[in-house]
Amino acid sequence: MPDLRVGTMVPLLEISRAWLVDPVGEREGPGEIVVRDGILEAVTWLRGAKADGIGPDGVLVLPGFLDLHVHLREPGNEDAETVASGLAAAAHGGFTTVCAMPNTTPAADEPGVFARVAGAAAASGSPVELLLHGAVTVGRGGERLAALGELADAGAVGLSDDGSPVKSAILLRNALLYAGMLGLPIVEHAEDVTLTGGAEANEGLVATILGLKGWPAAAEISAVERAIAILDSVRADAPGARLHLTHLSTAGALDAVRRAKAAGLPVTCDVTPHHLGFTDEWVAGARRWAWEALDGAGTARDPWADGALVAHPYGTACRVNPPLRGASDAAACLAALADGTADAVATDHAPHTAVDKEAEFGLAANGISGAETAFGVLLAAVAAGKLPLARAVAALTIGPAAVLGARPGRRGGARGLVEGAPADLVVVDAGDRWLVTADALASRGKNTPLLGRELPGRILLTVAQGRLAYRDAAGDA
Question: Going by DSSP bridges, is the β-strand pair 65-70/95-100 parallel, antiparallel, or unpaired?
């Protein structure tokens, strides 16, 4: 492929002897693709001798990923991230569509803020599709509903006060009723703030030993149960009401979602890569994967006893909301993803400036800059036999598209390898690894505990709607 600028239509791309995954067609295997003038012209599935030697440990061709939950910080905190740098980071991570959360300054609670963000996306030249969630309440203050109808008309794909839960039960109930009539999901940050005041790390052994105030799992579980109960109460009056619970992190909360789904309630949820792959022992200085922190009986290992502590404790890159949990909760997140209880993986990409992170642990800003490392974490789980590749890809493509209610031809639409459609895909060398460094990250936020670590799966190429979004300078694609 000729050397192209980001945003340029791809004239010709031919990839042979690759492993294709098509979650729409529920198919994976050896194959070839041809992109011509930005259109996915041909998808050929190989058999017999032509397929020999091609496996999922080589070059992967996947539909472009969709991230339900990113923070782009513009307007108001451009030192941490701009729309342009955030879209570049997304493309580096294989994402061709991202949904930005409304906790900007000012909050995205009226169409003027939407227009400002959309203008920044157009000016960036990135072909990555930017979708926006609108705020549920004015200024995200939790006092009165925002003009939800105006936000829907402006193109909102969901409504959320993320960073905070919807403050009162009556506001959440009214929001579900109104959003249901608009055909939009309420995207709820599940936290009972009466239980988390001053909390610093997951309640448990690590927090106790480090002298950090514990953040109980009950704060998430009770909030999830409240939201589900309110959803159930409005179904008769608003059949279109939908609830999406974002960045769930505890076994109890996921069990509540599992029961709600079994009862037929229109509830969905996502989990983050860091809650799948990391545990609270990372706050103490461990850097092993969550599944490595469990012994053969499924019991959490003691990082102080088995030499797992290799980094300095109190690393603020590990401070997130909700906090990194114990190994059993991380295993529950993986299990929920595998069995479909968790509909999607969303990164909760939360870039911060060094100033906001270089503080005492309990005073540092919450968040991990995670868009660029998300697929590497999932591939590590795949390599460890904890997650099928097809399920990992589905959770980044058709899963989040279904949460949005997206269909082919609509924004954020179904994510498959569809002949005749504009090419929307990511090419990955699953057999290669890349070193996570500050310089390697396109995001302005360098706040990730993965700095200095190698991850599997080098993204070679990201094509969004037929246009070049990212190309690895060292890759052959």
Answer: parallel
161, 162, 270, 348: the catalytic one is 348
Taking the C-alpha atoms of residue 274 and residue 349, their distance in angstroms, rounded to an integer, is 10
Please state, in angstroms and rounded to a whole number, the distance separating the CA atoms of residues 302 and 295: 10
Of all helices (H) and strands (E), which one includes residue 376? helix 374-383
Q: What b/e string do you get for 138-164 counting C-beta neighbours within 10 Å, with b at 16 or more?
A: ebbebeebbebeebbebebbbbbbbbb
What is the topology classification, in CATH, of domain 64-407?
TIM Barrel (3.20.20)
Query: 3-state class of 31 per DSSP?
Result: strand
Q: Identify the bridge partners of residue 422 per DSSP, sorted by sequence position.
A: 39
pLDDT tens figures, 40-94: 999 999 999 999 999 999 999 999 999 999 999 999 999 999 999 999 999 999 9
- Between the alpha carbon of residue 344 and those of residues 104, 129, 146, 335, 401, the distances in Å are 24, 18, 27, 13, 9
- For 78-112, the DSSP string reads TTT--HHHHHHHHHHTTEEEEEE-S-SSS-S-SHH
Map residue 283 onto helix, strand or coil.
helix
Among candidates 220, 320, 219, 222, which has minimal Cα distance to 277?
A: 320
Reported pTM: 0.97
Q: Which burial class, exposed, middle or buried, applies to 451 when counting CB atoms under 10 A from its CB (0-12, 13-18, 19+)? A: middle
Residue 244 is inside which H or E element, if any?
Answer: strand 242-246
Q: Is 348 annotated as catalytic?
A: yes
> Cα torsion for 82, 86, 88, 91, to the nearest 10°?
-160
For strand 267-271 and strand 467-471, is the pairing parallel, antiparallel, or unpaired?
unpaired
